[in-house]
Amino acid sequence: MSMILIISLIFGGFVALMVWQVYRFFNAVPDENRQFLDSPPLGFRLAWPFIQAMVHYVGHLFSETALQMAAARLKRGGAEYIVNAKQFLAVRLVSAIFFALFSALLGSMLGSAGLLFSLVLAIGGFYYPELWLREKTARRQNEMLRSLPFYLDVITLSVEAGSNLTGGMTQAVQKTPDTVLRREISRVLRDIRAGKTRAESLRDLAERAGSAQVKMVVASLIQAEKTGASLGPILRAQSDQLRTQRFQRAEKLAMEAPVKMLGPLVMFIFPTTFFVLGFLIMSKAILQGVLSWPPLVWAWQWPAGM
Q1: How far is CA 150 from the centre of its chain?
Q2: Cβ(92)–Cβ(126) under 8 Å?
Q3: Subcellular location, in the record's words (predicted)?
Q4: pTM, full prediction
């Protein structure tokens, strides 16, 4: 038997052993029942076997403080039914590893700089899921603040027509299109039907929203319920105040727009404008003989003389 055949058999056996070990590694991870959970984003789905393996083998090392903070951020971002706290922390680790491996492949030709490049991308990959969650949270809060005055108006009309707060929220859910706030109010109604008090359900809503405006409205409603005050004037005042704040926030963003445009204006638009004007001035000066430096004139007339 030749040496090449022996080496090939040894290498084939090693590859088969590695494939078997990888299969056993992932096969030992228990399946998750996601029947009542939301579908994760595409990037999460592509790396889902690695995320589940990370949770299974490393999840017990996560601290309770980190898990509680991650769970609170997921709740504010409306992603608590997409991934749990352990899966989110595992996503950050898997993302860091993937970014590091990918950058190592690209940076292998950079020599000593490739290690630094891999380290920087690994840190960026570790924080990328956090940035995704922050963006999702901010987008969710902005959508809730835009629709909150309208929902308060619907609840106000129901309350002034003789209904209570729960009936007003039920009308708001039934008579409005699907939005983030509508889903949150529906969850409040489900919590009330499940046995929670109305004040506790509203506090959970404020915690999930993570917005100062929603917390202010919830605090007013709970205070009015405790004191027995009329809900109609309170809801109407809250709605007017939220509209005023929304208008002021829009004015602030409009005033910030010219300042934010200065960067692109100075870096991209001004240099292009100066280049075009300088080209026209220089060409006219050369044609009129103002600029008579021979290399410049030769470079200017060279295409025509070819």
Answers
A1: 26
A2: yes
A3: Cell membrane
A4: 0.73
In a domain, 38, yes or no: no
CA 124/CA 92 separation, integer angstroms: 10
* Per-position DSSP letters for 51-95, written without gaps between them: HHHHHHHHGGGS-HHHHHHHHHHHHHTT-TTT--HHHHHHHHHHH
Q: Which residues, at least 6 apart from 175, have a Cβ–Cβ distance to it below 8 Å?
A: 154
Q: What is the CATH number of the domain that holds 178?
A: 1.20.81
The model's pLDDT over 55-75, given as tens digits with 9 standing for 90+, comes to: 988 888 899 999 999 999 998
DSSP structural state of residue 47: T
- Token digits of residue 46: 């592509």
Q: Is 5 a member of any domain?
A: no
38 three-state secondary structure: coil
Q: Could you give the number of structural domains in the chain?
A: 1
| Residue (of 99, 174, 183, 98) closest to 140 by Cα position | 183
CA distance 44 to 42: 5
Domain annotation covers residue 196: yes
**Cα–Cα distance for residue pair 175/228, rounded to 1 Å:** 27
How far is 90 from 62, CA to CA, in rounded Å? 9
Assigned domain for 43 exists: no
Domain span at 175: 141-248
> pLDDT (tens digit, 9 = 90+) per residue, 228-270?
778 888 888 888 888 888 888 888 888 888 888 888 888 888 8
DSSP one-letter string for 206-232: HHHH--HHHHHHHHHHHHHHHHT--HH
